[in-house]
Design brief:
InterPro entries: CysZ/EI24 (IPR059112). It comes from Apolygus lucorum (Small green plant bug). It is found in: Membrane. It is a multi-pass membrane protein. Belongs to the EI24 family. The protein is mainly α. The protein has one domain. It contains twelve helices and no strands. α1 (2-18) packs across α10, α5 (67-106) runs antiparallel to α6 (111-160) and α8 crosses α10. The radius of gyration is 25 Å and the shape is globular. 25% of the residues are buried.
Length: 321
């Protein structure tokens, strides 16, 4: 009974911690500015201190920045105000208007009107997806990645200091490549498990997978800046799975409200900066359960096998030369 209580308590704490970013973000920039105004107290270094003295001598007001809030609003503007809104206007505004005009000209009940409107809608949808949605999707992926990293680094430096990099460039590249492969295979595993034939277990299993994945996304910036390699990050999340399921639950539920991958991605990109901040400020509840939920283990084993099969010929060739 105590184990069940600890598990539920850890999941609830993770859920509450995940929502903190929505509050912290409104005073985080001011806290960072206050830290810059007090360099001696926060030990930020001689160069910053000299700059503060120079400003005092010149009677210049300290420069205030709203970097984190600005980046978050940019994410909301790009993904919600531009991307999502354009899709809604096209699907709910332009297409119905064109269909109405065609049927008004050719007749509401005429087969010709229905056929023409169907062809026009299909053609416009293809052009819109090819010329607008796909390029904007690729652009948003790149821009969002840069903005997410900027937010994570700024928050980490404020609360924890200078990031700890991996020991070598080779480890950094291998970690990044292996991480991409793990996440790709885990997404496939998540989609497969969602087709579990017994309802509602398919959705429950899918939800647990996405909770763990979104928690990994959120905490990965912090753990990476702490110098944790991928295997350590995954082991920590699997060992403390109740907390991380609770942490990823809000984002998982909100992104699953629509069946559209594009709209789900927009919702994720709008909300994700808040979860990055929440993860950076959170202190996960460790060892709430005696068992380890090894959801990442199958894809880790598969990734290791793929890497060995790929790298072995290169190693053998290098030995021969």
């Amino acid at each position: 009974m105590d184990s069940v209580y600890d598990t539920v308590g850890a999941a609830f704490k993770g859920f509450v911690d995940s929502l903190r970013g929505a509050v912290i973000i409104f005073y985080l920039d001011e806290s960072i500015n206050e830290q810059k105004r007090s360099p001696a107290r926060h030990e930020v270094g001689r160069r910053v201190a000299d700059n503060a003295i120079y400003r005092a001598d010149k009677k210049l007001p300290p420069k205030k920045e709203k970097k984190i809030l600005k980046r978050t609003l940019q994410c909301c503007g790009l993904n919600g105000g531009v991307f999502w809104l354009s899709i809604l206007l096209f699907d709910w505004g332009l297409l119905p208007l064109i269909k109405y005009l065609i049927l008004m000209v050719l007749g509401q009940n005429s087969n010709l009107g229905l056929t023409v409107s169907s062809i026009v809608e299909s053609s416009l949808s293809f052009i819109f997806s090819t010329m607008w949605v796909l390029p904007l999707l690729l652009l948003s992926k790149v821009v969002n990645g840069l903005w997410f990293q900027d937010i994570a680094d700024s928050v980490y430096r404020h609360s924890r200091g200078r990031p700890t990099n991996l020991s070598s460039v080779g480890k950094l590249i291998a970690d990044a490549m292996f991480n991409v492969l793990i996440q790709f295979l885990f997404l496939i595993q998540t989609m497969i498990i969602s087709y579990f034939p017994v309802s509602p277990f398919g959705y429950i299993f899918y939800l647990i997978h996405t909770c763990m994945l979104f928690a990994l996304y959120s905490f990965e910036y912090k753990m990476y800046n702490m110098g944790w390699e991928l295997h350590k990050r995954l082991n920590f999340i699997e060992a403390n799975w109740p907390y991380f399921i609770g942490f990823g639950l809000p984002l998982s539920v909100l992104t699953s409200l629509t069946s559209s991958y594009i709209i789900s991605g927009c919702i994720f990109s709008i909300l994700f900066p808040f979860f990055i901040i929440s993860a950076n400020e959170a202190e996960p509840l460790v060892n709430p359960s005696s068992s380890q939920l090894q959801l990442f283990s199958p894809v880790i084993a598969l990734s290791n096998a793929l890497f060995h099969q790929t790298m072995r010929p290169l190693v053998d060739q290098k030995k021969r030369t």
